[in-house]
Structure prediction request, 238 residues.
Amino acid sequence: MIKLKLQIDTTMKLGTNYGGWDLPYDARLDSQSIVYSGGVGEDISFDLLLQDKYDCHLFLIDPTKKAITHFDEIKKAYATQQFIFSGSIQPDYLPIIQPLHPNFDKFTYLPLGIWHKKDVLSFYRQDNNEYVSQSIIPGMFGKKYDTVPVLSIKEFMSKLGHSHIDLLKLDIEGAEVQSLQQMIKDQIYPTYLCIEFDLLLKNKDPLDETKQIIQKLLQIGYQIVVNNNLNITFQLIK
Prediction:
């Protein structure tokens, strides 16, 4: 007799193929949890599913004009049950988000950028105007830019009156490494981190800073839950 090995998947994907993230099935999140979601774009399937599943507090952080428009359209879509959007929408977006019942009283949108300190910076657009993502890293995209205010994670917490973060998601087009470095200096340790390491993904990391910050997180006590092509979910093990 051949014995089959039973493999139990301990993680779940929340969101679209493009905008979703993996979390442990037993993620310790609830109605009191604080989630900072940096980088919203035109896909907030992860955020909507988090709120629907855990009833947590969501703080969406993104100064991109297209992202602000999309969030306004999302709220209107649920209010009217007419899911019509002006931007570039992923093919699996509507089937995932339409059945949900998010509580928008628990959403706060902040049209700001995340960085390692308070500042006002150039926010570079892509050459293709149809693309939503922008970056405060010179050379990441095109030369045209908007000017946006930015804060560190600690400064966001002070502004919002928070003493902790339960989950931090960063998809901020290259600004993740310096933002995380400062977060660690400020001794801020969210239970879960969902980080897209764009500096390395886009070959803009000549100093190997991505590897260094990942090693630092592991030394602090984070464990990698899922690494999907440098879209990494970490959990702090206490």
In short: The longest strand covers residues 145-151. The helical segments are 45-54, 65-80, 93-97, 153-160, 176-185, 198-201, 209-220.
